[in-house]
Amino acid sequence: MFQEVQGARTHYKASEAWVVTNSKFTQQAFQLARSNGVRLIGREELIEMLLQMKEKVSPSRKVNAGTKTSA
What we know:
Layout: H1 2-11, E1 18-20, H2 27-36, E2 39-41, H3 43-66
Parallel strand pairs: 1-2
């Protein structure tokens, strides 16, 4: 997995490389990621990121949904 991520980062000239899962990573995965400069995003962090994005998007939808226009 980390060889693929490193290869993709090089190929696309990316400044960062992330591996995202809806599960958990092993301690070995954390060690390997750290030594290769890869960010691991596990289930709990992924949920938090999604909730933060929902908060940023939802307030504008609620305001617009409650606005009435006259015809």
